[in-house]
Amino acid sequence: MRPAVPDGMLGNVPLMQSWVNALALSMAKDIKHTNAWRCEICSRPSRETKVDMASWVHLPEPRVVLYIHHLCEAGFNPCHAMIVAQGQIMGNIVGPGLPPEPWLPKPEGPDHQYPLAASCCGCQKDATASRKTSMSRCGGCKLVRYCR
């Protein structure tokens, strides 16, 4: 991706970093619902994502690398702990990227879980994650999946 940098941001490192952080977090949900992702640690179906970033916004042509980790569950479980440790190591190498993760309450409902990554980005019903469900791709990005 090469998003257009808003006027007046080039050279203003704090403002540019703030814009990049917001852009990265706004894309996480869309990237989550692009495929039937599995947890990168245990291979169970993915329900959550964690975003790590390496950024060099001080350069004349700014660079940002996003690492979007698909996880079975975020919070206090071993899979999430491994990705957090990996992010801390990366942060020591490239410097801090995103601010600390906000704490988000679990969704309400019978399972108290976030929707499957394979589910529709719109309705987010787990039933749409079935391979039998006919899914369409977004006409703009060609990535995000929606049920018909």
Explain what you see.
The chain has a domain at 13-106. It starts with 12 loop residues before the first helix and ends with a strand. The protein is globular and about 50 Å long. The protein has helices spanning 13-32, 78-94, and strands spanning 48-56, 63-71, 135-137, 145-147. With 148 residues, it is α+β, with helices and mostly antiparallel strands. The longest helix is centred in the first third of the chain and has 20 residues, at 13-32. The strands form two sheets. It has a two-stranded antiparallel sheet with strand order 1-2. Strands 3-4 form a two-stranded antiparallel ribbon. It contains two helices and four strands.
Regions with little confidence, pLDDT below 50 for 5+ residues: none
The general outline is globular
Counting DSSP H or I runs of 4 or more residues, the number of helices is: 2
Structural class: alpha+beta
Order of SSEs = HEEHEE
Strand content: 15-25%
Oligomer designation:
single chain
Mean pLDDT: 81
- Helical fraction: 25-40%
Distance between the termini: 27 Å
Reported for the largest beta sheet, the result is:
2 strands, antiparallel
Work out the number of β strands: 4
Strand order of the largest sheet: 1-2
Radius of gyration: 17 Å
Topology diagram in text:
Layout: H1 13-32, E1 48-56, E2 63-71, H2 78-94, E3 135-137, E4 145-147
Antiparallel strand pairs: 1-2, 3-4
Summary tags:
single chain, 2 helices, 148 residues, alpha+beta
Give a summary of the structure in a few sentences:
By secondary structure, this protein is of the alpha+beta class. It has helices at 13-32, 78-94; strands at 48-56, 63-71, 135-137, 145-147.
